[in-house]
Amino acid sequence: MFTPFRGTTFTANVAACTSPPYDMIDDAATLRDTSPHNMVRLLLPKTYQESADLLEAWLGDGTLQIDTDPRFYLYTMRYRTDEGVEREARGVIGALALEPIGKRILGHEETMAHTGVDRLELLRATRSNLDLIIALSPAPGLPALLEPEGSPRFAFEADGVRHALYDLERQVPAIAEAVDTHPLAIADGHHRFTAALEYQASHEGRGGWDAIMAFVAPAQGSGLQIHPIHRFFPILRVEEIGDIFDVETAPPSPPTVPGSITMVTTGESKLLIPKAGPIQALPPSWRSASTAVARELLYPRCGVGEEDAVFHPDPERLIAELAGAPDGAVLLMAAVPEEAVSDAAEQRLRFPRKTTLFVPKPRAGLVLRSF
Questions:
Q1: What angle do CA 78, 79, 84 make, to 5 degrees?
Q2: Mean pLDDT along residues 122-129
Q3: Cβ(326)–Cβ(41) under 8 Å?
Q4: Torsion-angle region of 45 (φ positive above 0: left; ψ -120 to 50: alpha; else: beta)
Q5: Which of 5, 69, 302, 339 is the most exposed place for a label (fewest CB within 10 A)?
Q6: pLDDT digits over 212-231, tens only?
Q7: What is the DSSP string of 323-356?
Q8: Which candidate, 155, 130, 25, 12, places its Cα nearest to that of 78?
Q9: Could you tell me the residue range of the domain that residue 177 belongs to?
Q10: How many domains does the chain have?
Q11: Rounded to an integer, what is the distance from CA 369 to the centroid of its chain?
Q12: pLDDT band at residue 114, thresholds of 50, 70 and 90?
């Protein structure tokens, strides 16, 4: 299920060649100016064939090289939280065998329709995993196996995070066995995973299309943070909700209690705390997710759905939208606890789309997987 592979890596100036994941790139032009070999040129090309041609050229001129032997890669990200606490996220990069979500590979949130088409076409053109998905493993023995073997192959700082990549060769059998013994929950990259499944279905026989590059981290104590993603509704008319929520005046900031919601409208903000009776009707893992509470309890009273919302992790950016929407509202969500993500996946439940934002994000370009 989880196997080592021959990675493709940059041979020089790696820091300038890497980029955020494709869906986190805000300023592609600046990244293109950083280096003629920056990953943004592969991830967001003018045409899909342009990306394929560039990849072939970089392999031909030595910009990229393919490792001679298969291996796993230990990837660490050291950073400071918003509270100033130093943390390290740690996981292993390998090739994860593809299969439909539901048995050994689990999803934890719904996805938006059609957004995977672009990644599918890029996969077809390049025959490569240019960036990775994040999966969480509950295997109890995995953390002890994620120790460096010697010096890092690459180490650099980008966007306030210290990134380091190590070759892992001695622990290959033990890591593969640990990961294979438990179902994995996809934490980030649902659309890439769906695109890879569609690409696999278009082929007959076995091949490199039967797997996807994945960063597998421990489900508990991964070092990753889970940030909430908030909602702005241009029009939100709130009917009587006192029977399902305790309503208190509160500052316009994300709540700290899982499952609660801060509703910000023009001139005021209220904290909505679900009452014990209504919230008990929800599955346990959903009770800790503000987005699930909103979808199941609040939206029916307001006549809206997720399709009416604008999503963003920055509260201030959404609150600024209220200046042009006097009948609108911003719903600020609490962060979902780490254990609730695993619980939802194991129970085959899905949070609403855009519930979780795992940070820091692995850099695209530290290692690629071609086939």
A1: 140
A2: 98
A3: no
A4: beta
A5: 69
A6: 999 999 999 999 999 999 99
A7: GG-TT-EEEEEPPPPHHHHHHHHHTT--BPSS-E
A8: 155
A9: 2-226+358-370
A10: 2
A11: 19
A12: low
Contacts of 273 (CB under 8 A, 6+ apart): 245, 246, 247, 248, 257, 260
Over residues 277-295, mean pLDDT? 97
Residues 101 and 185 in one domain: yes
CA distance 13 to 319: 40
Cβ-proximal residues to 258 (8 Å cutoff; 6+ apart), any chain: 287, 288, 289, 290, 334, 335, 336, 337, 340
Same-domain check for residues 220 and 244: no
- Whether 87 and 187 map to the same domain: the answer is yes
- Amino acid, single-letter form, for residue 36: P
d(CA 280, CA 287): 8
Residue 158: beta bridge partners?
161
Report the candidate in 296, 244, 292 with the shortest Cα–Cα distance to residue 272: 244
Residue 62 corresponds to which tokens in the numbers above? 């030595």
Same domain, 59 and 181: yes
What's the DSSP call for residue 264?
Answer: E
Q: Percent of the chain having pLDDT more than 70?
A: 99
Q: Are strands 261-265 and 268-274 parallel, antiparallel or unpaired?
A: antiparallel
- CATH number, domain of 306, equals 3.30.1760
Distances (CA, A) of 292 to 33, 118, 260, 263, 284: 41, 28, 10, 15, 11
